[in-house]
Amino acid sequence: MLNHRFPQIVLIVVPALLAASALAQDTAPAKKPVPDAAAQAQATKLVKEVYGDDYAKAKTADQKVALAKKLLHKAGETRNDPNALYALLNVAKDMAILAANADTAFAAIDALAQTFEVNPLELKAEALIAASKRARVPAEHGSIANLALAVMEGAIAADRYDLATQVGELGLAEARLAPKSQMIQPILARLRETGDLATAYESMRKAAAILDQAPVDPEANLTVGKYLCLVKGDWDKGISYLALGTDEKLKALAVKELKGVPDAEGQVALGDGWWDLASASEGVAQKQLQGRAAYWYRKALPGLTGLVKDKVEKRMQLAHPTPSATQYRSNGSSRLARPSLVYLADLEPLEIRVKVFAPTSAQATFKEGLSRIHVPFDMPDGRVSKGLNVYPPGSKDSFSHVSYKLAKSFATLQGKAGIAKAGDDQPKGSLTFRIIGDGRLLWKSRPMRRLGNSESFQVDVHGVERVELHADCAGSTWKAFAAWIDPVLSR
Fold first, then answer.
1. pLDDT tens by residue, 94-114
2. Domains of the chain, start order
3. CA separation (Å) from 423 to 278, 337, 379, 380?
4. What pTM value is reported for the model?
5. Cα(262)–Cα(239) distance, rounded to whole angstroms?
6. Least confident segment among 12-26, 58-72, 204-218, 312-326
7. DSSP code of 397?
């Protein structure tokens, strides 16, 4: 990651950006330190004592995975004992690795990273290496290859090109052991790109060192800005460097962004400027420039009509802000198609905590447990077919929770949250909706109390690995028909 001081002039040009960043950091819950060796040993001993019978029976891979998932479930119920939580998750990870089940190991690692000061990238790399030594069948090798590309992307995002290369070579070897794997070419392509990215990173580091001494050096600012924006896609951090650089076209657009463009016409013009630069570029830089154009087109879209709207929508469909050739499902499997818009209703959730409901015009039926949440429902402005029904379980002061793995593959999540229509009786409590990204609050609604109430949201999910949708009910859950209305991800 970029590890030097920003040029002092940036503090003048973009104070609002820095204030927003500080606010985001304030909302992130503090992570706990990893328990010391003695505490880990004691808690692990207790886990093995409590689950001794399960350990004794866990002979096959399926039995080991079942035990790992059982421990993960118990960890989800553990609140005020960090030593026990760490031990449960760590043992679950190790059991999954023994079964060569990297998916379950990754679930445990993600849970560890949510609470503790651990490096999930390094843990996942270690898990893949260990699982690869135990993999015996093509499906296991294929799963490791799929996940290896995801870890590669994470390592590249963190400027860990050494780790990206190591994991990529492992993934390539595993893909070749899975005859039906489609991962060989994507991993090969990303490995080739990784070498070029590593070279660009070293150039950026040298330029960053220059900026430590001369913050307004034009060439150094251009080098850093191009790396952050056109390689990494980190426009929030890189745009100010471009504004101080020597490339006049990049500079003009960057200055325009920093001044602010509040109207749809100006936003389209800014998007067109980035799109034109993309047309004269290639490779990763072209994709990132198209992605920036799509960012401004999305902002302008609600105020557009006619041919301009059609042009913007067409270009948004063509834009791919990230260079990866593979889109990951929530369960880690791959597909080569990369639609620009993906509804959460079409993804497999990682976790669900709801009382499922199916509203009709007169009543609602309920079913407890992990059940289907993509049931059509009504809102004042029409029928919703791509929504999520998330009625909080329990009878009072409860909450619902649905989470998805985004694998850092999306730019924006937008939609509405509200109370679905179901009969005439009004709720007795109030509902508040929250969106959490990797443990950080991204959006929170106002409290809602009446059927049909809703509030729009549009949040930035660049770099977000996991997103969680919460609906918190204060008071009675009677008629608490919480719903996420057509939540859609865009690239």
1. 999 999 998 889 889 988 988
2. 17-197 (no CATH), 342-490 (2.60.120.1060)
3. 52, 41, 12, 12
4. 0.58
5. 18
6. 12-26
7. E
